[in-house]
Structure prediction request, 652 residues.
Amino acid sequence: MAGERLLRTLIADDEPLAVERMQILCAQLEGVVLVGTASEGESTLRLIDALSPDLILLDICMPGLDGMAVAQAIQDRAHRPAVVFCTAFDTYAVAAFEIPATDYLLKPVSAERLARALARVREPVGSPDPPTRGEASRWLEEIWAPHRSEMVRIQTARIDLIEAERDYMRLHVGSRSYLIHQTITELERKLDPAVFIRLHRSTIVRRDFIAGLRHDGLSTWLALLVNGQEVSIGRSHLGAAKALAGR
Amino acid sequence: MHAQAEHRKFLAAAPPDAVLALLSIIGFWLFYFLINTLRAFVLGEHDQLGMIGSRIPVAAISMVITGGFYLALRGSHIANTRRSIIVAVILALPAAVAYGTVNWAMFSSISSHSSMQQGTWVQGAGMPAQAPAAGQPGQAPGMPTSVTVGRVMPKEHETPFEEIADNTANGYFFFIAWASLYLALSYAAQAKALERRAAELRAAAQDAQLRALRYQVNPHFLFNTLNSLSSLVLTQRGEKAEKMIANLAVFFRTSLQGDPTKDVCLAEEIALQRLYLDIERVRFPERLVFKIDLPPELEDLQVPGLILQPVVENAVKHGVSQTIRPVMIDISASLIGERLLLSVEDDGDGDGAPRSDVARVRVGLRNVRDRLEARFGDAAECAWGPRPGGGFAVSLAMPAVRDGG
Prediction:
């Protein structure tokens, strides 16, 4: 593949068979150069410093420093490899919000899916930085959510409505919806208040997704959404909602 | 056909209360009959045989009247005990009047016949339509006109109305007495039925609890194992992969098919843990070592199925997988008195470095504790904590249940 940038890749996983499997998959893909393997967090960091890889295929569950901690630690490094998380189950997706990752793979990773992840790493040619949130923003700009048997990246600006479902939050994006394991308070804290508004104990709505307010006569207020849906407004959120409507 | 079925359903539904009422009615009046016969005998009253002959139909008719009283009482559908007493007090009145009338009719006719005297017919003022049961109703001076507990001396020169009123007043207490008996018995029966129902509900609740607490396959384990398996296949280690697939099949079948409310023998439970650890050892070939100590005499003891699974899984997840060096998992069973003690220890670093999901460990172990409590109540214990010298220790103590217990 002429013109394709060689990706110097480091594999970090504490299970020998998992490392072997990833080595085999990488060997089958073009443009990947395996520079090393690590089996725990500390040695992963050492190898990153010593080898300056372009990409790290990072297992999340490792003894000592786990994958999340490793990804966090390299944020301050001058040389930052692209991070592709690999995990057996998606309970870590929440933590991955905070850490910019190029992709999020579920084990066992298929060769085809890995190839797509590598393509994503190559996208911002010339810069090893993964596409992340804007420089100035301290607000969450993307969320990883499980969809079918994959993790998909959702731009927070595209979320219309967020509703609590017991321990989970349902994110409505157009006609699709995704469940993530997160509390509404945590999520509210991470979302830009200029874009989103909390309307109820269990509801957050994107401000421009609200078409109007309606009083239903029983001292309760409803917000009319752009898609025709109505959501009730909690008493303690009514003031903010009315301010939004300019009343 | 349908009506018949309905009828059968009614019969099936009726018995407990109706049978109770019937037996109490028969018992009550038989007792009354015996007491009066005995009294007549002790007092040496004359014409005892004749009196018995009249007492039998009186008792029989009284049973029928009481039956009617019962139907009226039941028909009033009173669930509240206090109200049903009030209803009984009211409904006993017409029953007592009927009783008084029958008594008057029977005994006055009998006595008039037996004394061969010509009685005088006196129309009772309030009872215009009283039909005499047999012969000419009349009065027999000097003869007892009815036999009741409260009256020993025969009354003389009573009008039929006075006599009926007198019998009614006496009879009234009989019906109140029977009603008390019946209400007490049916209340006792209801209490017993409620108790049985409560026991059934308790059993159902325990069942539901055990089902809710059942072991659920840890998705981390499943997907990591599939990943290892895939690796074995990619590196063409078919025999090892085949062995792992067979182990996985047994493990999943046991955890999916096992009835969470049923016990299994300890040997089986331990065998499953061995299987599970064999699977995990493929993932952690260098880091997982285990030792199992099960004395042969304890093999047949009964334990809740999969009770060790969350404990051993916890040792792997938070001991082995969090530790860079090899970790020993030590599973042992012992008998202390009549209590079975199961212990799972590891010497990993897990608990030394608290992690974000330490709370999850506790959820798994608390689930084990809840299951033991649901199964054995206060007789079981589940304790955990850091192990002296490093690592984590969990111990389960429960009554030693032999086969079939």
Remarks:
- Residues 212 and 224 of chain A are 5 Å apart (CA to CA).
- The interface with chain B takes residues 14-18, 20-21, 24-25, 39-40, 61, 63-64, 66, 88-89, 91, 95, 106-108 of chain A (CB under 8 Å).
- The first strand of chain A starts at residue 7 and ends at 12.
- The helical segments of chain A are 16-28, 41-51, 67-73, 93-96, 111-122, 184-190, 238-245.
